[in-house]
Design a protein that fits this description.
The protein is an alpha+beta fold. Among the domains are: about 5-85, no CATH class; about 240-425, no CATH class. The chain contains 10 helices and 16 strands. It has a 6-stranded antiparallel beta sheet with strand order 5-8-7-12-16-15. Strands 6, 9, 10, 11, 13 and 14 form a 6-stranded antiparallel beta sheet that branches. A two-stranded parallel sheet has the order 1-2. Strand 1 (about 5), helix 1 and strand 2 (about 30-35) form a beta-alpha-beta unit. The protein starts with a strand and ends with a helix.
């Protein structure tokens, strides 16, 4: 039976009994989930983590899972305060001494006005030199963090870049304090289909306006006309992403999942001004929906993901029968109208489209994308070349074609079929390592080869 996972609230302690959870952690009955936590004061962390240590309770603390850097730093600070408050073990009252002092009658026969009557002698106690209570050199502490391999470092760097460019960097319900979310995250953005033509006044100064050196000099006849460092509001952004793929003809239903992040301008719950009032931030709300559609030849798919909250965001597509299988094209569309102010509220961030089988018993439903039929393929030379390329790359299966986005396929269980297709704005690929073969008696020196 697995351990119970306790999902900690956005702000500690919430409605949880931290003392009771502390006892359950000590007994190893529960594990913590920090993925949603954004604010954890030290006084509550000390109650939750009292009597625990990273060496023996790391498995239950859940710090190796999804957790923000600020919360991880707060936990580390809490454990450091525990070490400082720990008192050193005391000895039996008096400080142990390796030297004893004794006095004996003095044999001093020198003629002085006031001779010493007692002679002081010092002796070393050999039994105390090997005593267990004697001061011992400090033992080196065990490392809390395991030594990372180059693969672990590369994966960590990859995730940092992904979160920095795509987001959300501070969790599913993060707060962005910058003036514009569209300037914070550079990929994974779907703009409204109907854009506002007038430029928006920024809610705060842009970095170019804050930095006087970034501003160009005024126009003059000698230097000519200067270019603005701020991009125009009419920059090109897509309003939809999609993919085309092939599904086995035996399948009759397909599960579609669409998800994105919706940012609204609100008062912060964790950041405050010096006077105690909350600051204005962009608050993220995760949006997600799933639907199972029936596959029929010629069917058009029209699905509104969140009719109550965002009725202008929908999934549309078409299903066709081809050579006994299904050819399907789907798009996630942002059909909203951009407002004149707070425009990022109508944008979709971290948008994603995920497809999988509606039947758990038959997960591998996605097939190799068929070759496109065109007039060029009728040429015998081109047709022969296509056949040769298909033979050479028969193990490199292309399951889908992305429209304005890349597509990632999960084909771990079957190299010729995939169980999940999902869009991705930052695709990655593992390049196999290649090593140069070492041939015996191989001469590579050109001068030696010229002699031979």
């Amino acid at each position: 039976m697995g351990k119970k996972i306790i999902e900690l609230p956005l702000k500690l302690p919430g409605e949880l009994d931290l003392k009771q959870i502390n006892q359950q952690l000590k007994s190893g009955k529960v594990c913590l989930d920090w993925s949603e936590v954004v604010y954890a004061p030290q006084k509550y962390l000390k109650v939750l983590l009292d009597g625990l240590d990273l060496e023996h309770h790391e498995e239950y603390l859940g710090i190796n899972g999804s957790i923000s850097e600020s919360i991880l730093d707060a936990i580390s600070k809490c454990f450091k305060s525990f070490k400082k408050s720990t008192k050193k073990p005391e000895t039996s009252g008096k400080q142990l001494s390796f030297i004893t002092t004794s006095y004996s009658p003095s044999n001093n026969n020198s003629e002085v006005e006031q001779p010493n009557l007692l002679e002081e002698k010092f002796e070393i106690k050999p039994d105390l030199l090997n005593s267990t209570n004697s001061p011992q050199p400090p033992t080196p502490q065990k490392q809390i963090l395991q030594e990372a391999t180059p693969y672990d470092i590369r994966e960590k760097l990859h995730q940092l870049i992904l979160h920095d460019l795509l987001g959300p960097i501070n969790g599913e319900t993060e707060e962005v304090q910058e003036g514009s979310v569209s300037n914070r995250y550079l990929v994974g953005v779907l703009a409204p289909k109907i854009r506002s033509k007038n430029p928006e006044e920024p809610t705060e100064e842009t970095p170019e306006q804050q930095d006087s050196f970034a501003l160009a000099e005024p126009d003059n006849a000698e230097e000519g006309q200067s270019d603005s460092a701020i991009p125009p509001a009419s920059s090109m952004f897509p309003s939809s992403i999609g993919m085309s793929f092939c599904v086995s003809g035996e399948i009759t239903e397909l599960e579609i999942t669409a998800k994105w992040g919706h940012y609204e301008r609100k008062k912060s719950e964790i950041s405050f001004k010096e006077d105690g009032n909350p600051i204005q931030v962009w608050k993220r709300t995760p949006r997600q929906g799933s639907r199972v559609v029936t596959l029929k030849d010629g069917k058009r798919i029209e699905w509104v993901i969140s009719p109550q909250e965002v009725p202008e965001v929908f999934v549309q597509g078409r299903v066709r029968k081809f050579d006994g299988d299904w050819l399907i094209t789907l798009f996630l569309v942002n059909n909203q109208t951009e407002p004149s102010k707070l425009r990022d509220s109508s944008w979709l961030f971290q948008s994603e489209l995920i497809l999988r089988s509606a039947d758990p018993q038959h997960p591998d439903i996605f097939l190799r994308k068929p070759l496109a039929v065109s007039g060029a393929n009728l040429d015998p030379v081109i047709h022969q070349e296509n056949q040769a390329m298909a033979m050479l790359y028969r193990h490199q299966v292309e399951f889908a074609v992305g429209h304005g986005v890349a597509v990632k396929a999960d084909s771990k269980n079957n190299s010729q079929r995939a169980s999940t297709l999902s869009t991705t704005f930052i695709p990655d690929y593992e390049v196999p390592q290649s090593t140069t073969p070492q041939l015996k008696d191989l001469v590579v020196d050109m001068k030696q080869q010229s002699i031979n």
